[in-house]
Amino acid sequence: MVRIPEPLTRLHPARLSRLFTSRLRSPQLTSRIGRLLGIAVAVCFATGYLSHAIQHPPGWFYWPSRPVNLYRVTQGLHVATGLAIVPLLAAKLWSVYPKLFRWPPFRDPVHAIERLSVFVLVAAALFQVTTGILNIALWYSPMSFFFTTAHYWTAWIFIGALLVHIGVKLPIIRRALGAPEHPVPTGGLSRRGLLTAVGAAIGVITVATVGQTLRPLAGLSVLGPRDPRVGPQGLPVNRSADAAGVTAAATDPAYRLEVVGPDRTLRLSLTDLAALAQHTAQLPITCVEGWSATATWGGVRVSDLVAAVGGGPGASVRVESLEQDSLYRISTLAPPHAADPLTLLALRVGGQTLDLDHGYPVRLIAPNRPGVLQTKWVTRIEVLQP
Ligand SMILES: Nc1nc2c(c(=O)[nH]1)N[C@H]1C(S)=C(S)[C@@H](COP(=O)(O)O)O[C@H]1N2
Ligand SMILES: [Mo]
Fold this sequence. Notes:
Blueprint: H1 13-16, H2 27-55, H3 70-96, H4 109-136, H5 147-178, H6 191-209, H7 241-244, H8 247-251, E1 257-260, E2 265-268, H9 270-275, E3 279-286, E4 292-301, H10 302-308, E5 316-321, E6 330-333, H11 335-339, E7 344-349, E8 352-353, E9 363-365, E10 378-384
Parallel strand pairs: 1-10
Antiparallel strand pairs: 1-2, 3-4, 4-7, 5-6, 5-10, 7-8, 7-9
Molybdenum atom (MO) is lined by residues 238, 287-289, 371-372.
């Protein structure tokens, strides 16, 4: 005879909680997973904040132009730890979710506030992981808000709720991490087995995505939305010239690069630019979305142009694109980047004239800098004296 289960609506939460019977759950398990999750969150938050600060520098902030690959490492860590949080968060939630069905849901006002902070914490964590993954998957359309602003502010909400949560749970965490593990009855998965499975999931996710930024693993990057080896001139493109609406202006023979400084303004044709001292720099494009690719760029040093228009040491440089109505129209080189001899207005990549989609006729390439700031289709630079 088949027993028809009661409709869910008739199941009182108090009875529901009896359905979750795994004996693996324990404060020890939750605390151990929580500790790993805490490490991943700390690295993800710190590297995320760093990326934000580089793009929107507060007054006190200093970011060097060397080592050239530093941002590549920090942003690679941001994306890798963000992805590692997925299995850790799933395991952590699994280890406690019968508590969601406890009845009554809270005992007193303090407990109610604690429950509320957990709700905020989980909601913010899910939001961060979801929007982050949508962004690295280049799938912006489900996000009706501006990703970076939402992702940034939700990170603060998350960290606030996390600190409250850790503060409240500290006595339990201390006891759980200090106490010996009470044994799980034999048969079925062990706690060690569960943690190994979580670790294996993180390993698979990492190996299947990190090749976007770690060349030797590029061939294994089956889950990476980008192959850093594929694109015009062997480099990926985020926004093409057509999408940016610059094709006509970028190919116009009347193109001039305007260089504005304290002493004079130069208007340089491509022939003028080719007649200046040429340099090469081996530098990566490091997209905030987690892919990066190194290339050999050739062109004119920004510091030479700054000197040519009378700019002195300590100057910043504003770089403007032919592209209109875009957040990436303008970027500013802070003094360390403006003065670095590796910072170029590139005319070539890999020995060839820049592809239109890589910023022809002139693009900025500077060391240790997010891809979003490596402005393409540059039309004007302006020296900003300190
Ligand atoms: N004017 C302009 N410059 C831009 C962009 C853009 O959309 N418009 N995209 C930026 C981003 S997000 C990245 S990662 C790099 C990518 O350069 P690539 O397309 O040559 O690989 O260009 C940057 N420069
Ligand atoms: Mo990017």
